[in-house]
Amino acid sequence: MSTADPSRLLAGVPGRLIARAGAAFSSFASTAYPYGGVELGMVGDGRLTRVEGTYEVHAEEYGGVEVIEEVPTGDSWVYTANLRTWDDDALLYVFGHTKVGALLGRRVVLASGGTSTPLGVGEGRSRRWSGGLTIAFIADDPLRPSLVLPQAIARAVRELEVPLTLRDEAGISCSFRGLRPTSGSAASWGPLADLP
Asked: Strand, coil or helix: what is 186?
């Protein structure tokens, strides 16, 4: 960037989270929102985190303690967000243990286990959706960065808080890990029209 442009600051990128089970999204350039997926809700706060694994090369001539090189061994991508709005679809995609209530027919989150859950105890999260799960954050402004995890698994948020007060929004926190697909990358972000 030759000259800093204050209009390109990325503070507060509002958008929506969508998911699609079993297949990748339709083309973002030629298909209407939600691109063949299901909207999970409006995102209040979202963060993409990259964790790189490295192997340290130590110099034996310096006692084997001094690091002279780091060799990358791969990386991991995790998207964490707070959904300001959500419905039964969001609960299904975000939580491992849910069921449909008998009286109102609305989805209920079960704390742990239960008999009518789609994800059994000890079952790998990646097996939950036949054909995989694709997650995308779609920024409201087409010039702001959007995000696609072409193959993702829902992760448990370590300390989940759902405010049940008049003072706070009753948002839910969610987290998705991008897995390396057979071809392509685990995560892509940038202007929506340019995303694969």
From this structure: coil
Nearest CA to 128 out of 98, 106, 161 is that of 98
Name residue 112's amino acid. Answer: S
Could you tell me the residue ranges of all domains in the chain? 15-56+66-95+134-184
List the CATH code of the domain at 15-56+66-95+134-184: 4.10.410
User: Reduced to 3 states, what is the DSSP secondary structure of residue 172?
Assistant: strand
Residues 114, 71: Cα–Cα separation, whole Å: 45
Report the run of H or E that residue 43 belongs to, with start and end: strand 38-58
Could you read off the pLDDT tens digit of each residue along the chain, which spans 196 residues?
A: 456 555 555 555 689 999 888 777 766 767 788 888 889 989 988 889 988 888 889 888 878 788 889 898 888 899 998 888 888 888 888 876 778 888 998 888 877 655 544 544 444 455 555 557 889 999 988 878 899 998 888 876 666 677 677 777 777 888 898 988 877 788 998 988 888 7
Rounded to two decimals, the pTM is 0.75
Closest CA to 127 of 21, 50, 24: 21
Contact by Cβ (8 Å): 110, 100: no
H or E stretch covering 90: helix 88-94
CA angle 169–119–153, rounded 5-degree value: 65
